[in-house]
């Protein structure tokens, strides 16, 4: 495994992290505690130290599964990133709630679910600019840093071209930008990444495999079950993406190189990107993702 400094936080994160949206049940699979233990144990064995989750991956469900695991391991071995700003209702249904006092309740609920006294990275989660520009919110969060509940703040931008929230990160004491970035979606390179570099912000690239389209598993015409989040994607857009993936595989990926590992390494070759946070359904996928670090040599 390789490690990079997460911007001005000075945290050294593994270049491959573990994204955990799937633990909330919206990837068409229900995860048991044993499933999660196996995934995270494999990650630790391979040198991964970064877990990314959120309050709305289930109703703190993903956090609870991680928390149960962490309670039986060394807390200091992991850098835990979670998020705030939503109330989960049911699969794919959540509402935005960025009121400062409600966010304090969300924070306490996340700490309880994660069974930890502190969160390493607490991220504003895909909110509108009006919610971001609430000084009361950031004042409250700074007080939680002083109280020891949070180590660092970050912003998970909903639009990968949200320059407003990126440019104002330093002003609100946000040290990290999380953004959709992959070989099929390079928009952050134009405006977001230059701002991150100027401010020395850490960058977490989410959806680095483009919802699995860059895994190399799917051909044009592939369909997904109703329980799979990709079932909600526009069919024509999915077809175009899979056709583009075929061309990328043919023209850019060396023979014998795993497509998914290539795609993760491709993200990490951008000097601004600190880490990628792909999801995974089992320990074998964790191991395959971790091998992408070898392609950086």
TrEMBL record:
GO terms for molecular function: oxidoreductase activity. The keyword Oxidoreductase applies. The keyword Oxidoreductase applies. InterPro entries: AKR_Detox_Biosynth, NAD(P)_OxRdtase_dom_sf, NADP_OxRdtase_dom. Residues 16-294 form the NADP-dependent oxidoreductase domain. CDD domains: AKR_AKR11C1. Keywords: Oxidoreductase. This is Predicted oxidoreductase.
